[in-house]
Amino acid sequence: MREGKIPSERILKELDEMLRKNDYRSAREHLDFWLSEAKERRDERGVLLLLNELMGLCRKLGERENALYFVNAAFEQIEKMQISQNIGAATTYLNSATVYKAFGLAEDAIPLFSKAKEIYEANLMPDDDRLGGLYNNMALALADLGRFAEAEKLNLKALAVMARIEGKEPEQAITYLNMASAAEAELGLMGAEARIAELIEKAKELLDRVKERDDGGYAFACEKCAPVFGYYGYFLYENEISERARRIYEGS
């Protein structure tokens, strides 16, 4: 049994490059290899990091059983490490809750989001982007459950966090589109028409403000936002930002 830490920074950098190219097969092989390596080296934090990345990748690929398997493995790892109240555990609760929400288990996700929220708010600075991510994802789960007032409060908190951080325009745009979808769910398409239009325009302005960016994060945001714009009738803009994402992914 070898001892030593896995090169986490390099692993994540290589993973980001694979995901930027939509090379999910290589990403899965990469994570599986380093998970085995972390276990071999007895790098407990490395194991937890890779379980988090694997649950996220499986969620993105729609692999419910695999994603839930890695969620449970991560819970066991937290218990093994006895770190249930630290930030690393909170991130795992957040990621696990996001998996639950993605697979229609929003009710089960809320307690995990709440645990992550308690730890994050006690330990992170108000301008930490991890708070913004938490508020965004928890708001989505609350909206799924029809708890729209609570979702609105968290979306506004997410916007406030991201407004303090340079370069977070794409994340703010996603939040505005989430709010548009929640308004429709609460009031119906006709009842929320004016509110939706307002939110859509705010999202569009934010994405255009940084349209010269060529990083994977911006490409992902454009890819994620495009069908929402199309759903609300902004077909030309849907095509435009889809093309932005394509160019970034292909490096052209």
Report on the structure:
It is a single chain. This protein is an all-alpha fold and 252 residues long. It contains 12 helices and no strands. Helix 3 runs parallel beside helix 5, helix 5 packs parallel to helix 7 and helix 7 runs parallel beside helix 9. The radius of gyration is 19 Å and the shape is globular. 40% of the residues are buried. The mean pLDDT is 95.
Q: Return the average pLDDT rounded to an integer.
A: 95
Binned, the helix content reads over 70%
Characterize the overall form.
globular
Which residues form runs of ≥5 with pLDDT under 50? Answer: none
Q: In terms of structural class, how would the helical and strand content be classed?
A: mainly alpha
Rg of Cα set: 19 Å
Put simply, the count of helices is: 12
The CA-CA distance between the termini, in Å, is: 45 Å
Order of helices and strands: HHHHHHHHHHHH
Largest sheet report: none
The number of E-state strands comes to 0
Beta-strand percentage?
under 5%
Question: From the structure provided, what is the oligomeric state, counting identical versus distinct chains?
Answer: single chain
Q: What key attributes describe this structure?
A:
globular, about 80% helix, mainly alpha, about 250 residues
